[in-house]
Amino acid sequence: MDGDDQPVPRYDFKAGTTLLVDKPQGWTSFDVVNKVRYKIKHRLKVKKIKVGHSGTLDPMATGLLILCTGKFTKTLHQLQGLSKAYTGTMYLGATTPSYDAESEVQDRFPTAHITPELIEQARQQFLGKIQQVPPMFSAIKVDGQPLYKKARKGETVEIEPREVEIFDFKITRIDLPEIDFEVSCSKGTYIRSLAHDFGKALNSGAYLTALRRTKVGDFDIQDAWSLDQLVEFIEEGPVIGAEKMA
C-alpha cells in the first residue's frame, strides 16, 4: 500500500474496518484471515474478534482479497456480488483434474493446429453470458460436502452448469504453449473452468498456470496491503483500542 504523503489512518478493528490484502501464492484465503485475526487479537489483547473475507481465491492464485473486521463483516455478502477482474496464464495442450497447476497433467492434446486466428475465434465464444460448469476441485457443496472432498476420494458428481457473464476477455500474449489473458467477469465465474473450456474450444486442452485478481468492484489491487505490510501495521501502527496515541 503506497502511503506516500498520505496521513496514516487509525484503524478501529473492533468497531469494524475493511482491509484490502494482496494474497500471497500458496496461502488459502482462510490462512490470511486466520493470520490477520490472530495478530489483531494479540494487539488488542482480546479473546475474540470477527474477521471474514469476501470471494475465495485458490491457493495458487494471488491478488486482491477483501477482509472485513468487527461489524463490517455484515457487509461481506454485499461484496460477494461485485464483479471481478483477473490476469493470468493458460498452458495449452494439456489438462489437469483441478483445471490448474495444483494437480498433475492428466491428458495431452495436439497444439500444432492452433493459430492466432483460431485463438481469436475461441475468445469471442466466451464474451457475454455463458453457461459454465464449476470444476470438481471447488468448494461448492453437494449433499453437504464440498466438491473437492468428493474429487479427492475419486468420486464424480454431475454438476449443473451455471450462467455467468464475461464482460471483457483479452489475450495479451501468445507464446505457445502459453497464452496470457485479462478477464473481467460476474460473481461466480471460475477462471479455471474458463481455461478448461477455452482449451476445448481450440480442439485441444488447457489449464491455468497463473492467476492474479486485480479488481473487485471498484476495489483495486493497487490500493492493497501486502500481507507482510498489514501484519507489521497491526503489530506497530496506530490502532484504536490498542494503546493511547501521543
What do you see in this structure?
The protein contains six helices and 14 strands. It is α+β, with helices and mostly antiparallel strands and 246 residues long. The chain has two domains: 16-81 and 218-236, Pseudouridine synthase; 84-216, Pseudouridine synthase. The strands form three sheets. Strands 1, 2, 3, 4, 7, 10, 11, 12, 13 and 14 form a ten-stranded mixed sheet that branches. Helix 1 runs parallel beside helix 6 (227-236). The model has no long low-confidence stretch (mean pLDDT 89).
Radius of gyration: 20 Å
Task: Quickly count the domains.
Answer: 2
Contiguous helical run count? 6
- Which ranges are low-confidence, i.e. pLDDT below 50, for 5 or more consecutive residues? none
CATH class of the largest domain: Alpha Beta
CATH superfamily of the largest domain: Pseudouridine synthase
* Strand composition percent: 25-35%
Distance, first to last CA:
24 Å
Short synopsis of the structure:
This protein has helices spanning 29-44, 76-80, 116-125, 147-152, 191-201, 227-236, and strands spanning 16-23, 51-54, 62-70, 84-92, 94-95, 107-108, 128-132, 141-142, 145-146, 162-175, 178-185, 206-216, 219-220, 225-226. It is of the alpha+beta class.
Topology:
Blueprint: E1 16-23, H1 29-44, E2 51-54, E3 62-70, H2 76-80, E4 84-92, E5 94-95, E6 107-108, H3 116-125, E7 128-132, E8 141-142, E9 145-146, H4 147-152, E10 162-175, E11 178-185, H5 191-201, E12 206-216, E13 219-220, E14 225-226, H6 227-236
Parallel strand pairs: 1-14, 3-12
Antiparallel strand pairs: 1-3, 2-3, 4-11, 4-12, 5-6, 7-10, 8-9, 10-11, 12-13
